[in-house]
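TEACHING EXERCISE
Course module: macromolecular assemblies
Task: Read the component lines below, then compare them to the predicted structure of the full complex.
Student: A.B.
Group: 4
Components provided:
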Amino acid sequence: MKVTVVVGNPKPQSRTRKVAELLVEKLLAPGYELEVIDLADHTDEIFAWPSEKLAALNASVAESDLVLFASPTYKATYTGLLKAFLDRYPANGLAGVTAIPVHTGADFTHAMGPTVTLAPLLAELGAIVPGRGFYLALSQMEQLDEVVEQAAREYATNFARLALVAQGTTSPAHS
Amino acid sequence: MKVTVVVGNPKPQSRTRKVAELLVEKLLAPGYELEVIDLADHTDEIFAWPSEKLAALNASVAESDLVLFASPTYKATYTGLLKAFLDRYPANGLAGVTAIPVHTGADFTHAMGPTVTLAPLLAELGAIVPGRGFYLALSQMEQLDEVVEQAAREYATNFARLALVAQGTTSPAHS
Amino acid sequence: MKVTVVVGNPKPQSRTRKVAELLVEKLLAPGYELEVIDLADHTDEIFAWPSEKLAALNASVAESDLVLFASPTYKATYTGLLKAFLDRYPANGLAGVTAIPVHTGADFTHAMGPTVTLAPLLAELGAIVPGRGFYLALSQMEQLDEVVEQAAREYATNFARLALVAQGTTSPAHS
Amino acid sequence: MKVTVVVGNPKPQSRTRKVAELLVEKLLAPGYELEVIDLADHTDEIFAWPSEKLAALNASVAESDLVLFASPTYKATYTGLLKAFLDRYPANGLAGVTAIPVHTGADFTHAMGPTVTLAPLLAELGAIVPGRGFYLALSQMEQLDEVVEQAAREYATNFARLALVAQGTTSPAHS
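Instructor-supplied answer key:
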């Protein structure tokens, strides 16, 4: 299974990145291949068109089975940097990718962000969001492990339920 | 597999209901049990508290594996009737339920509705939305069969992808 | 000036109502006419069509200069009862009405609600929202007076700025 | 009166820019000072911190009485470029600015965008949005003049109504 973490913080090596990496670790059984794309390392070509470097990153994300899109909360929603990366896709450019929105923020004032702003954006691109978005307030940093563990358990439960429903659907090839 | 269609149109037997029923038929292989709840039949107790009748309906929906929440577009979003039904749940009251938002509307002006308004509401309740919301414009009624078939195929593809990812997650019991 | 408070709590005489009434008192100079519509008193006909009683309430709100739409937070957004009342309007039914969205909630988790869910709904109906929505967490009840006073001051400042811009626009009659 | 148009299209001199400029022309009586900021000209420093050039642009926008934020529709919402510009503000950085959200798009599928995504973002920054966001579909280009004229008339009507309400509010200095 190919897993990617895309980090939308304009500053590299952020806490937001660490939170997303921890969620991957807690959510997945060993045996996956992980790539982390810290968009802070690629701001120079984010508005260049065409860009071989960005095209390769976009392709790598679109070919993933699971992607965590992680962003600090800027103005109650995801960063412009993350959006600029997603803007490079054509319509439906993340079709079939399972995507988990992750926001971090100072307190809970913007806790709705990943669910009401980033999740619909990912769905618009064709991605599938398996539940609520994950929000971490910095006041929770001391309980980071437990908070992320609980979120991982919730997503794992959701996946188990989705797999059951999947068995009852018509084969996509035939329908 | 237990499947439910919840219809939020204040008028019973609506086209919205028929559209949702057709999506169920196209999406699922035979062998499921289907219940249709036309909320128009239950407006008398929708604000009564407690209400045995409504409690039974709420429970039936929450115990379903898959639920289609179908609403005509009222003021660019789902109806107050559908929201009033969902308001009766406690926090996380649809945990683990797979839910597909379905809106119908006159034209495409409010096509974003099921994805940006109903899907986040269902996620807030703990439900899992496997992709974009489904929107049908009345101008598409003549191609209803093809349009719904294509949506069903997209959801079926999404479910197949989700089932793959599910195999790589930690067991919810252990994590 | 005609001012109306519409309260969407299914229970009458709520704290949400008191909060909205206090905001009116703090925001406006004496000399206005105030009507309070507690929708809890009108649930019996909210889905009846036609309904003389509801039609009169709808008309009264639409003829107001300023309306506060106040709702407790249910599932991260406004109540189904408030939405059911708004659903009775035709398209653009609140054209030209100045409207302030007010949500109350247990804590700040859903503080984005009035700005990202109720404000766009009111705008869809043609109303004009003069700034952010107002959110009050119950943990703020002891500082209620100061919190509401600050919100009133912010709206008053916004109105003063809007009045300046208004002077520079073309006359609506001529344009 | 100081008026600014901020254009979020990564390509300069876009149709989106022309549409926003036309709306300014139709909405305002002569006598205003207009600045147009085409963000496409400033992508090189949009993620640089600090940046004198960007700081000057941010300040100029924040000191305006009226700002039109204009963006083509990318993934159903505003561009990452526009968001990256807005991300440079501190909390409440557009306090008191009257702001009109303008989106252009291929058809009406994403017509809700300026009202449900850009307007709440501007409100979060403290700006005041005087009504719905303005959306123009490219299929309307032949009736551009009439469509923009009608939008201008609607905003002008809203401003006239807001000015009336402003007269009844407490003075912001005293309250």
